[in-house]
Design a protein that fits this description.
Number of helices: 11
Helix content: over 70%
Number of strands: 2
Order of helices and strands: EEHHHHHHHHHHH
Radius of gyration: 29 Å
Strand order of the largest sheet: 1-2
Largest sheet: 2 strands, antiparallel
Strand content: under 5%
Oligomer: single chain
Length: 298
Amino acid sequence: MKLTNISIGLRTWKTVVSVVLALLIVNTYGTTTSRLTFAMLGAMTAMQPTFIESLESVLTQIIGVFFGAVVGVLLLMLPIPYIAATGIGIVLVITVYNLFNIKLSPSLPCMIILTLTTTPDIQPIAYALGRFWDTMIGLSIGMSINTLVFPYNNTRKIKSMIKSLDQEVLHFLEEIFDGDSILPDIERLLENIKELDRQLSIFSKQWVLLRWKKNRNKLEMFETCEKKSRQLVSHMEILCSMREYGRLDSENRRTLAGQGALIQDIRLIDESTELDLVTNYHVRQVLQLRKELLDTLR
């Protein structure tokens, strides 16, 4: 859905639905601002681009809320000023996170500790249980909707990038053998490979329990394509590093012409030189890898 230049994506709508459902559920057993806030934060936290990222966010919330509530309640039992209790709690949280190598943000438990130690009229145990319960409602709804309702799928984008890479390879070879001494720019291809890596990383973090075998096979296919793309680019880098190029042999010239490439270099081979052999070897590897790349994608 697009309004002028503003694009509203599917994940935005899923976030709205998750928040509304969480608020409706919390509203059934007594509405307070804090309860609604905890439920909303839980629903929004779980709405991440991939399943793995959503799971990490959910674990961050669960561990943070539970640990912060427990530490906060224990600190309230000590006869010390709230500032000292807050400082001790923060030190304890960060130390435990580092000790167990918990790669999650410690800010949430520290915030809960601060709330418990600086609010004199609060009921610590009731607050801790309520915070955990309301947050879990939001997390459960957000995680369920994000995972099961139109999960993010970048399959088409990956396929499109691979096909685009294929066309750039053909254009690259045309520029090499266009009869002038200007070399093609390979930086764009390297950037595309980098972006392909990023998209494959996103795909590998998706929810794959549904039709797991199919998604696993698709991931293996994409990884094979990415591997062949890297091999292909390595041969193209070698071609770019050459100061001059040999003459195309009849096989490579015929293959390029058959694939629609416009080759303006009209030099023919009468007797092969070392430069001709090196040039044709790398061109042949590029064409072979290009063919294997498309065959794998099909």
